[in-house]
């Protein structure tokens, strides 16, 4: 455990590790498992789902388990009784569509007295892809790309996705009825709404086709013709709260973002730091959130903020990026561009931001660091924060100055984690 701040980068990295460790499926899943059955059908989707399946197998060595979960390529965990399938994220592919079809077939064949254990985590919306009738995979792929560039938040994107799906928005639980369905969730969304996590395949959906159309209009998205027509017809609404099909369905949380922030806060306090906890529900345009939190750090260093120097400002949630350029990067590195620009090399302030799943956007990094020397080193390399922001090219800047954070696949996902250290 780090007890000094002689190495700010190492301390910040330890905070990220603590946040990820608090959501380790092998630690957080066993305590929320239901009473041990004689046999169970296990299905699931998400970046944590394979590790969740591994945790189930380890906790229930003598249970007759069968089933299938789909996770992102590279996030597979070896299992003996539950089949693990890799698929593409964030844009779905044929492997994800095939896996979703197999999962639907499995639960449709479940008996009334059988336990269906659904392991659901963030990333499941793209991984569990089974387009509604009349919509092609190519249509869904194009819409996903448009949504990802639009600036829509995760809740809005998933309202649209679930209304174009044959398996999301409660339809998986409906297909399993009258079997008993126990859903175990690892949350990656602000507010921990089960209907938003992976587009809620096993829980009631309070949203409507009208909501989906309004979101498309709000962000001026021009969807493929088949999707536009499907949303207008609105012929097959998702199952709603109160539907009898959910009478035998329950959902529990194994991990939430607030627990990860609490674990990092405990570590920071043990290192002698004050903690400013901004919560796990921070949303907004990534660069603007970064600038705002940087100003808070400057105020703390000046003695006018909510804490004095020798503190850490923590936050979670999920920011958004409205794509205006053609660069590389994700919301965490774009947030850090906002931090770096606002700090302008101010001494004594270091920052880190990372997606707890290990991937920021679609690159190979979880996030990055901002140091007092970051902009100086960027300028020496012929790079500017303004140009990077204009082209949404955060990855290139942080890669060139050696400030990327690379964790590899973490096999969990409790959203973004951000920390600004003020010394």
Structural features, described:
The structure is a single chain. By secondary structure, this protein is of the alpha/beta class. The chain folds into two domains: 8-20 and 258-422, glycerate kinase, domain 1 (3-Layer(aba) Sandwich); 33-203 and 205-238, Glycerate kinase, MOFRL-like N-terminal domain (Rossmann fold, 3-Layer(aba) Sandwich), CATH 3.40.50.10180. 38% of the residues lie in helices and 17% in strands. The protein contains 16 helices and twelve strands. The chain has helices at residues 8-21, 25-28, 49-59, 94-108, 124-127, 137-150, 154-162, 171-176, 209-218, 225-233, 257-270, 286-302, 331-343, 374-380, 385-390, 394-400; strands at residues 39-45, 64-72, 83-87, 115-121, 180-186, 249-255, 274-277, 311-317, 349-355, 367-370, 404-405, 416-422. A six-stranded parallel sheet has the order 3-2-1-4-5-6, sandwiched between helices. A six-stranded mixed sheet has the order 7-8-12-9-10-11, sandwiched between helices. α12 links the parallel β7 (274-277) and β8 (311-317). α1 runs antiparallel to α11 (257-270) and α7 (154-162) packs across α9 (209-218). The longest helix has 17 residues, at 286-302. It is globular.
């Amino acid at each position: 455990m780090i007890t000094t701040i002689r190495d700010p980068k190492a301390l910040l990295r330890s905070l990220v590790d603590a946040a990820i460790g608090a959501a380790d499926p092998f630690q957080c899943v066993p305590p929320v498992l239901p009473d041990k059955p004689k046999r169970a059908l296990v299905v699931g989707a998400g970046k944590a789902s394979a590790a969740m399946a591994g945790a189930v197998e380890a906790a229930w060595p003598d249970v007759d388990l069968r089933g299938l979960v789909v996770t992102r390529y590279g996030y597979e965990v070896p299992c003996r009784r539950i089949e693990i399938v890799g698929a593409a994220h964030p844009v779905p592919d044929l492997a994800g569509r095939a896996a979703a079809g197999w999962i639907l077939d499995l639960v449709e064949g479940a008996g009334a007295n059988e336990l269906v254990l659904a392991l659901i985590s963030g990333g499941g919306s793209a991984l569990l892809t089974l387009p509604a009738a009349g919509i092609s995979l190519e249509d869904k792929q194009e819409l996903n790309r448009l949504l990802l560039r639009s600036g829509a938040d995760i809740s809005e994107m998933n309202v649209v996705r679930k209304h174009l799906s044959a398996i999301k928005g409660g339809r998986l639980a409906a297909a399993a009825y009258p079997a008993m369905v126990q859903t175990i969730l690892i949350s990656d969304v602000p507010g921990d709404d089960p209907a938003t996590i992976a587009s809620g395949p096993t829980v009631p959906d309070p949203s409507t086709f009208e909501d989906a159309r309004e979101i498309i209009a709000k962000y001026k998205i021009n969807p493929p013709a088949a999707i536009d027509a499907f949303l207008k017809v609105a012929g097959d609404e998702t199952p709603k709260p109160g539907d009898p099909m959910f009478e035998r369905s329950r959902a529990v949380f194994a991990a939430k973002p607030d627990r990860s922030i609490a674990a990092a806060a405990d570590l920071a306090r043990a290192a002698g730091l004050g903690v400013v906890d901004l919560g796990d529900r921070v949303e907004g345009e990534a660069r603007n959130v970064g600038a705002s939190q940087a100003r808070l750090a400057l105020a703390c260093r000046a003695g006018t903020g909510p804490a004095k120097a020798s503190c850490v400002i923590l936050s979670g949630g999920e920011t958004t990026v409205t794509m205006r350029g053609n660069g590389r990067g994700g919301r965490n590195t774009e947030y850090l561009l906002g931090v770096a620009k606002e700090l302008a090399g101010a001494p004594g302030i270091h920052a880190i931001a990372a997606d707890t799943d290990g991937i920021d956007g679609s690159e190979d990094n979880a996030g990055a660091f901002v140091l007092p020397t970051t902009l100086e080193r960027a300028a020496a390399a012929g790079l500017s924060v303004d140009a990077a922001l204009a082209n949404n090219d955060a990855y290139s800047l942080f890669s060139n100055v050696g400030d990327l954070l690379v964790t590899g696949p973490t096999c969990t996902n409790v959203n973004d984690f951000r920390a600004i250290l003020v010394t």
